Amino acid sequence: MAVTDVSMLRRNRKKKKAVSFLKKLIIILAAAAAVAAIVLTKDMWYPKLDGILTKIPAPENTAELAEGYFPLSIEGGASYQLLAMDNCLAITDDSHFFVHNTDGKMVFSAQHTFSNPIMTAGDKKILLYDLGGKSFSLYSKYKNIYTKTTDDPILIARIGSGDAAAIVTKGEKYPSELMVYDGNGKNIFNYRSVSRIIDVTFDPDSSGCYITTIGVSGGYMVSRILYYRFDKIDRDEAGDPIPVWQTEDVQTLALSVRLFGDNDILLLGDTMCAYYDSSGTFINSYQYKRRLVDYSVEGSTAALIFVNEELRTSELVTLDCTENIISNKPLDHEVINVQVSEGTVFLQSAEGIDSYTSAGESISSVKLDTDYDDFCRMGNYIYLLGYDSINRINFN
């Protein structure tokens, strides 16, 4: 007959309880560590997951408005702006900055104090600045990265790859002064211009920039492009940076300067557009025959809308900048806005949205029952901007 040692049983029970408690503690600590890792690395994994979650197969083109979070209501009426940013919608009104995913769900919001807020979009960031004011902010779709102030009123601002920011102000001694900041908000380049700076275009890697200025020569408005690099700056006797190269004056009021191909340059003006190679040498130009009402550029494709005021019709002109091919498409109605997206040209009229190839060939169209002021195409969707609301339709 076996004899039971009570004290040994108690020791064994305590040992089992201790082991069981230790196992539970390890599980709890591991779970806590996993949660902490998920939270701390949210900015790395959530954008990818967010993109996957919001990619819903789109049906055929339809004028049927989306439901769910749409329409998005906007306070303050028509003063708001919308831009595409990192597979999201960036929206600003007179007091707030919002980010919504493609389904309309808000993922970030922040209040601003800008009197005249203007947005400009980069690859994955938004640069928000106060036109005529002295403040600007850099935003991702999840947070405010930084906010800075200037000494003088801001005229324009642009953003490049790597989140480089160009801020042009109106100085006391110079018509325009440019300050360039890196992605962390560090000032890396400054330039003072005796002419008005109308645009700043960054290199693909933001290692330099193209500064476009306007002035008057012989009684005509003229534009010029100056190229500077940030890593190698030669200076004159006054200490001002010397450009690597600059173009000759071209007789037009520059509206925008874009890069295409191997850093070739397209200058879009109000009366003509001009092509330059990567060293600033003039290649070709296209003189407008009618008044320009809107334009859009993506990659090597530029789409220009001209109006025939007598017939109240429009003309679509598409430019293949790489191949130097120009296509003309007369339209029997007036076009309000144009956007080039993924190589396709989208036109908005009072009747609806039409799409064309880069050669001006018709693809498809959608009729709309309501008038909208503007639109933004992103992915398989078109976002329609009304007076105080934003709607969405499917448009492949």
Structure notes:
By secondary structure, this protein is mainly beta. The protein is 12% helix and 50% strand. The strands form 9 sheets. It has a 4-stranded antiparallel β-sheet, with no helix packed on it. A 4-stranded antiparallel β-sheet has the order 2-3-4-5, with no helix packed on it. Strands 6-7-8-9 form a 4-stranded antiparallel β-sheet, with no helix packed on it. The chain starts with 5 loop residues before the first helix and ends with a strand. Mean pLDDT is 86; it is low at 1-6 and 51-58.
Q: Rg to the nearest angstrom?
A: 28 Å
Report the end-to-end length measured between terminal Cα atoms. 85 Å
- Approximate shape: globular
Strand order of the largest sheet: 1-34-33-32
State the total count of DSSP E strands.
34
Largest sheet: 4 strands, antiparallel
Concise overview:
By secondary structure, the chain is mainly β. It contains 2 helices and 34 strands. The chain has a 4-stranded antiparallel sheet, with no helix packed on it. A 4-stranded antiparallel sheet has the order 2-3-4-5, with no helix packed on it.
How are the secondary structure elements laid out?
Layout (H helix, E strand, L loop, with lengths): L5 H35 L1 H13 L17 E2 L7 E5 L2 E5 L3 E6 L4 E6 L5 E5 L4 E5 L4 E5 L4 E6 L4 E6 L5 E5 L6 E6 L5 E7 L2 E7 L5 E10 L2 E10 L4 E2 L5 E2 L2 E2 L7 E7 L3 E6 L2 E5 L5 E6 L3 E8 L2 E8 L4 E8 L4 E7 L3 E7 L2 E6 L2 E5 L5 E6 L6 E5 L2 E5 L3 E6 L2
